[in-house]
Amino acid sequence: MSDMIKTTEGIATVVIAIFVAFIGAFQLFTARQKLLLDLYNRRFEIYLRTVDFMWALKEWEFLSDVAKVERRIAFMRAMRESRYLFAGDASILNLLEEFDRRSVSITGRFDSLNKFVSMTPHVMGQAVDADNKAAANMAWILSAITRFELYLDPYLAFGNRKFSRSRRRKAT
Prior knowledge:
Blueprint: H1 2-58, H2 65-85, H3 90-107, H4 109-114, H5 121-156, H6 161-171
């Protein structure tokens, strides 16, 4: 009888060990999937903040000062975070930095034009040049969003990663 109990205990120990190993493997898989989902969410948040800032630029003159500051800060955070969340791909950070440089002509344009209440012809020419530069930069920003989306495609697409990479190569 004691041999039978020892055999049963041995079998039970093996079954429990297999069950615990299975649960551990499942927890490992779940933790990895959660990490990937968290990373995806952080990267998608950068996309959303960038697009939100682009739309804010289109309506910049009509936004409140508080909204302007909030949108600018959210975009600046997204730009800085992209350095770490897309560490292997400098093209994303470079594009966002260029986006930021070009946005300055738009965000400062209306404030500077308000200063020219009594404009001389020379100052009016400068204001028109600034307005033309801001319009050109806004056109660049609108077209850059498409490139930005293609750069993000390998990181945010749920589809075939090989297809996503080939689309990205065509965009550059």
